[in-house]
Each structure stands twice: as C-alpha cells, then as structure tokens.
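Lecture notes, continued. The same structure-token format from the folding unit now serves as the input rather than the output. Read the line below as a description of shape only.
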C-alpha cells in the first residue's frame, strides 16, 4: 500500500516540477517565438499555456484525491488517525489549490487573455487585462513553488516512514 502512495507522490511531484520548470517557461522562450512567428507569439503562446494549465490542474486534483484516499487507508490500517493531522492539512491545502486553480484561476486567465486581444475591447480594458494576466501568472508561479515544497515534504514523509510496526517484534520475547 505504501508503494502506491510513494508512486503517486513521485509522479505528482515530477509533474508539478516539469510543468513549473520546463513546460511553462518553454512557452515564452525564443524557440517558441521562432516557431510561432513574432506577430503570433503574444497571442498563441499564452493561449497554449492556458490549455496546458487546465490539464495541469486536472492532473493536480486527481493526484491529490489519490493521496487523500491513500492517507485514509493508511490511517485505517495503522489505526492512528489522530497522530497525522499535518499530512491531512497539507493534502487538503493542495487539493484546495487544485480545485481553485481549475475552477477560478484558469478560467479567469483565459477570459482576461481574450479581453487583452479582443478587437472590441477599449485600450484601457486591454491594458488592465494585460496587467491582470501578469499578476495572476506571478500568483500561479508562487503557488506552484509552494506546491513543490509541500509535495517534497509529502514525498519525503512517504519515502521515509516513521511508523512503528503494527505487531510486536520477536526481539521483545527473548528469554
């Protein structure tokens, strides 16, 4: 059972690190600018990033739910749910971030991106949308860094169990 939890935490941590460190910055790189052409780059690169962000948050929520199920099963097996409040708080916080990101942050970024490049929008609205998108990207980046830290702690906790054995060892019965 612990193996499932460690695999989930490793895949989850790896996916978040990959998206934060590799995929997201690659969309703003000069190679992407060359591929999309300079006149298309400001519109399509963030649009592609918003599509990927939607899938990222879905991945995030699925991994959080698997981790919560694993934690619940671990508590039932070990019989000590009161001693593990911090992991529950961390996992609920990560699940909350995934749900908020999926249902609020990502749609808001998509909407402001559409306003930013809309021909019907006034220049003032476009400037406000551009500033809003920039601020929200910083918020998402900081949240992703926090998620990486929480996931590293979660992964370390699963990979290095501090649980005492459920049954008494044979060493205690020496005569």
């Amino acid at each position: 059972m612990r193996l499932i939890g460690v695999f989930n935490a490793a895949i989850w941590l790896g996916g978040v690190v990959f998206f934060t460190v590799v995929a997201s910055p690659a969309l703003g790189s000069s190679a992407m600018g060359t591929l999309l052409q300079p006149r298309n780059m400001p519109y399509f690169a963030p649009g592609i990033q918003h599509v990927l962000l939607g899938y990222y948050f879905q991945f995030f929520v699925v991994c959080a739910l698997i981790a919560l199920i694993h934690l619940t099963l671990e508590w039932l097996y070990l019989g000590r749910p009161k001693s593990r409040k911090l992991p529950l708080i961390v996992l609920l916080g990560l699940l909350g971030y995934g749900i908020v990101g999926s249902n609020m942050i990502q749609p808001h970024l998509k909407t402001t991106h559409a306003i930013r490049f809309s021909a019907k929008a006034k220049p003032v609205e476009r400037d406000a949308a551009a500033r809003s998108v920039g601020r929200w990207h910083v918020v998402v980046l900081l949240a992703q860094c926090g998620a990486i830290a929480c996931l590293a702690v979660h992964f370390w906790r699963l990979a290095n169990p501090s649980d005492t054995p459920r049954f008494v060892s044979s060493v205690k019965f020496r005569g």
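Point for the exam: The radius of gyration is 21 Å.
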